Amino acid sequence: MKNWQGVCKGMVTGMVLGGFIALPAQAQAEDAGIRVIQGGPAYLNMGLGAFNAAGVSPGVGKNNATLPEMDLEYQSGAKLFGIGSVYGIVANTDGGFMGYTGFYTDIAWHHWILTPVLAMGGYHQGRGKQLYGTFQFRLELSLDYQFANQSRFGLKIAHISNAFIKKQDPGEDEILLNYSMPISWGEHQQGG
User: Fold this and answer.
1) Residue 185 in 3-state DSSP?
2) pTM (2 decimals)?
3) Residues 6+ away with beta carbon under 8 Å from 35
4) What is the pLDDT of residues 106-123, one digit of tens each?
5) Most buried by CB count within 10 Å: which residue of 36, 46, 96, 118?
């Protein structure tokens, strides 16, 4: 329980400090052509890559292997202060999968889009890596090139971890090629 409280305090402190730091930095970033996308279409993201791509120790057993994986993710077009909701599932070829939900933002610089994601959800090990617990956090960072039709293609890195709410936290790292297709149900603002 103490670890969970520490994680919560750290997240709140980080968000407050980040807000104070971000305000003056935002004006400088806008001068450089960097901006947070406030609206736009929703996106369906499809990624193919490697589950447990880093931190693999030889001789530990097949539960520590690097595996092919697929990631499907929906990012809402509606945003509040540039932050939208995300829903997704990632699955590997050994029957392991994680369903997750959380928040994301898009930071644009010309045709390049940087998208950080903070999510949480449930993990099922299957025959894959032991992550010590069903409840896990997921962090993602993708860098995509946005085409004229607003579709995006790029690279995504992700990390799944229990944030030490359990005694052990081996974590898991991923790397994926990512394609994002804009979808719309009704009217939306042009975003990018």
Assistant:
1) coil
2) 0.77
3) 29, 107, 108
4) 999 999 999 999 999 999
5) 96
